[in-house]
Amino acid sequence: MKPKKEAASGPEQALRQIALGFPDTAEGVACEGTAVESATFSSGKKTFLFMRVFDGLYTLRLKLTGSREEAAALSAKEPGRYRIGSQGWATITFREDEDPRLAILEKWIGESHGAVAGQPARAKARTGPRSTRSPGKQKVR
């Protein structure tokens, strides 16, 4: 079932403003026309936040690095609200009548932006040929 397109309000608008506050960020759509259609927030070609609002239920997906332990602790306390995957992708779910905990979400969205959108800059610093030899087998001249 496709989500209804409604004017953003409340937490949805606040989360959009937080995400769009980062430099070079654009909003898009993932899986358009499907049951899992989500708003995406990307910097360059890297998406750092997926947000789905359907029937009063918010689902956010973002990448955590430094806050993974915090998210895991919250997941242990509230497993229906927080889930953290092995690669650091966290899923946060809440109903529109619940406190979205914007302070935590704002911190995590910023962390996700840095983790995902910051990767191309780090990768460019490592350009050049990579050796396929193991460090212990160096060529002697």
Summarize the structure.
By secondary structure, the protein is of the alpha+beta class. It has helices at 10-20, 68-77, 102-117, 119-125, and strands spanning 25-30, 38-43, 46-54, 57-63, 82-84, 89-95.
Shape estimate: globular
Amino- and carboxy-terminal Cα gap: 65 Å
Rg for CA atoms: 18 Å
Helical segment count: 4
Helix content: 25-40%
Query: What would CATH call the class?
Result: Alpha Beta
As for the number of domains, it is 1
Order of helices and strands: HEEEEHEEHH
Topology, please?
Layout (H helix, E strand, L loop, with lengths): L9 H11 L4 E6 L7 E6 L2 E9 L2 E7 L4 H10 L4 E3 L4 E7 L6 H16 L1 H7 L16
Antiparallel strand pairs: 1-2, 2-3, 3-4, 4-6, 5-6
Helix pairs in contact: 1-3
What does this structure look like?
- The chain has 141 residues and is of the alpha+beta class.
- It has helices at residues 10-20, 68-77, 102-117, 119-125, and strands at 25-30, 38-43, 46-54, 57-63, 82-84, 89-95.
List the defining traits of the structure above.
141 residues; alpha+beta; Aspartate Aminotransferase, domain 1; six-stranded antiparallel beta sheet; disordered N terminus
